[in-house]
Amino acid sequence: MSSYTAIKLIARPKPGPVTPDIFEVVQQEIPKAGPGQILIKQTHMSLDPAMLGWMSPDPESYIPPVELGAVMRSSGLGEVVESNHPDFAVGDRLMGIMGWTEYCLSTGQGLNKVQPGLDAETVLSVFALPGLTATQGLFGFGDPKKGETIVVSGAAGSVGSLVGQLAKAEGLNVIGVAGDDEKCDWLVNELGFDGAINYKTDDIAAKLKALAPKGIDIYFENTGGPIQQHVFDRMNAHGRIVVCGMIADYGKAEPSAGPNWIPIIKKRLTIQGFAMPDHFGDVPALVARLTPYVMAGKIKHRAHVLEGLESAISGLNLFFTGGNKGKLIVKL
Amino acid sequence: MSSYTAIKLIARPKPGPVTPDIFEVVQQEIPKAGPGQILIKQTHMSLDPAMLGWMSPDPESYIPPVELGAVMRSSGLGEVVESNHPDFAVGDRLMGIMGWTEYCLSTGQGLNKVQPGLDAETVLSVFALPGLTATQGLFGFGDPKKGETIVVSGAAGSVGSLVGQLAKAEGLNVIGVAGDDEKCDWLVNELGFDGAINYKTDDIAAKLKALAPKGIDIYFENTGGPIQQHVFDRMNAHGRIVVCGMIADYGKAEPSAGPNWIPIIKKRLTIQGFAMPDHFGDVPALVARLTPYVMAGKIKHRAHVLEGLESAISGLNLFFTGGNKGKLIVKL
Fold it and tell me: A130 near A158, Cβ under 8 Å?
């Protein structure tokens, strides 16, 4: 009889950094798959900024919060180790919501088989939530057109880095915003962004003016924070703002103010918020849309891999500090 | 040789109420129509909140500002008194941009003939800019659906009163926001709104909760001001916000802050700004869309008529004070 580790959410987070006391690490007996079930051994777990929202009760959010006492929610990659389900065989690799756990039982619902040959980091960095989010946000709402200028905040993050590369492949002038020089360097010299702004040290307004002399047509918003007003001020007529994340504000007791709405009229802006659960039905189409860019070698990624389930707890705080270099993955 | 009066803009307005010193009242000789021209005697002039924006230079606005020394811009209704143009006969009634003037010359470009039988107040209150704006904003961007709840700010204004009546005719729960009890009473008892909020004296949050128990699906924003955050807080998932006017902020040196953007993601909101000059090509379709409601007797209006060209100057300040009761029209 073997045991495995899982981590449960036992209290709601307070504003500020995530503290370990809101989680409980438990050892449990590895179960057997019941009729119609499969047993999955998770190999890699994805950490995403959206998790910070999932931990807090908010009746108006797009997805119910994680219940207290339940295993913390996350998506991941796992291998079928036991199957009583005709559609799944031992050895199949599956992707989907598995949670902070080394093993889980499933009926297979909501899980997708992963193409053989793709390494785990590519799967979780490109074809999982970040890539689906980037593809839906940019093409579903951003309406990118060759020659236009796009600004991406959180550009070195898992979603932002893909949005920028997709936009670059479409022929846009791509400006990324990130929080340190190493990330900015990576955006420009590795990913091919046309420019990058270090929001902590650069003169944001001056640099935006230099990098976007004809104004900004699309703002892909992953962060909030001081960059928001600066980009807003330089939006062009008929500009599109896709609001995907507000990480700079998630940990705040008092959310910061947004821009005044007069320019929304003057420039006839469209501001569109979205969240992937609304689009889970479109996953096959999104994967089909994304795949050619990956196959053409236009999408680079980098993963920031943490080791062991418990590293997820402090790992969440890397979203607040910007300490992660690429997609956060926990290797189990 | 007779003369007529016109009013020119000679200085840019300062924040706060409009002062007479930015205008010059001039007497000019009535011109003769040249080849291909018509001479129009304006009979009624429309005052619209958008004029406040037209007076200030803003390279990013949707329409160039009125040049200093030029006749102030406005739309109006006039009669052809001399014609050298095959498409226009003496006695034709025309609607369009004519300016603050008793007479103007035109080639007819941009002017539309007015259906006989419609009185001047109906033309300028319903079928001119306010009705086109209400129709484009509500149906073009608001996507109203029977049973949904809409909140209209500036609801007793020329655009807002039409938006609310159109929405009511479509079977929505319609809540209007206005600045005095007489207007609120008019909205509910004359126009058939389901509820009204006096933003100056009511407990806005409590009243919104009572009138929109299932939340708000559409916010038609004409004013800005404190109502904005309250409505924003009660928007439903997939809500639409149509931003048409921000009168509460136009006169301010420092525009007020907008709402934080986190709810835009959580509720997947769409915020759309618009301005009618983008849609002037659709005027025939908009008139066709609006006409059946008028013919069915579903659209009431009231005009607030000022007498004489010079009344336009102080008349503009009624937009700031909310002192107008219905569509502002200057009778010449």
Answer: yes
Q: For A246, which of B258, B262, B268 is closest by C-beta distance?
A: B262
- How is domain B3-117+302-331 classified at the CATH fold level? Quinone Oxidoreductase; Chain A, domain 1 (3.90.180)
Q: Please, are residues B289 and B170 in contact by the beta-carbon 8 Å criterion?
A: no
Alpha-carbon distance of B163 to B274, in angstroms, equals 15
What global pTM score does this model have? 0.86
Question: Residue A259 contacts by C-beta under 8 Å, 6 or more apart in sequence?
Answer: A228, A229, A232, A233, B257, B258
Which two three-digit tokens encode residue B263?
Answer: 């709810």
**Where in chain B do CATH 3.90.180.10 domains reside?**
3-117+302-331
Band the pLDDT of B33: cuts 50, 70, 90. Answer: very high
Q: Which amino acid is at B168?
A: K
How far apart are the C-alpha atoms of A19 and A14, rounded to whole Å? Answer: 8
**What is the DSSP secondary-structure string of A228-265?**
HHHHHHTEEEEEEEEE---HHHHT-SSPPPB--SHHHH
Question: Rg of chain A's alpha carbons, rounded to an integer?
Answer: 20
pLDDT band at B1 (very low <50, low <70, confident <90, very high): low
Chain A residue with minimum CA distance to B245:
A265
Q: How far apart are CA B285 and CA B288, in angstroms?
A: 5
- How far from B224 is each of A263, B53, B248, CA to CA, in Å? 12, 15, 6
Inter-chain residue contact A60 with B269, CB threshold 8 Å: no
- Cα gap B59→B70, rounded to integer Å: 18
Chain A interface, best mutation among B260, B269, B270, by max A CB count within 10 A = B260
Other beta carbons less than 10 A from residue A90's beta carbon: 11
* Inter-chain CB proximity A262 and B268 less than 8 Å: no
Pick A258's closest partner by Cβ from B62, B259, B267.
B259
What stretch(es) of chain A map to CATH 3.40.50.720? 129-278
pLDDT tens digits for A175-218?
A: 999 999 999 999 999 999 999 999 999 999 999 999 999 999 99
Contact A261 B224 (CB under 8 A): yes
Query: Any idea which fold A129-278 has?
Result: Rossmann fold (3.40.50)
Token readout for A112 is 């997708």
- The upper half-sphere exposure of residue B20, i.e. CA atoms within 13 Å in the direction of its Cβ, equals 6
Amino acid at A189: N
CB spacing of A60 vs B263 below 8 angstroms: yes
Asked if the model's pLDDT at residue B281 lies above 80, the reply is: yes
A1 pLDDT above the threshold of 70: no
Helices (H), chain A: 50-54, 120-122, 129-135, 158-169, 181-185, 204-211, 227-233, 247-250, 262-266, 283-295, 311-315, 318-321
How many Cβ atoms sit within 10 Å of the Cβ of residue A156?
A: 27
Closest residue by Cα to residue A99 from A172, A189, A164, A26: A26
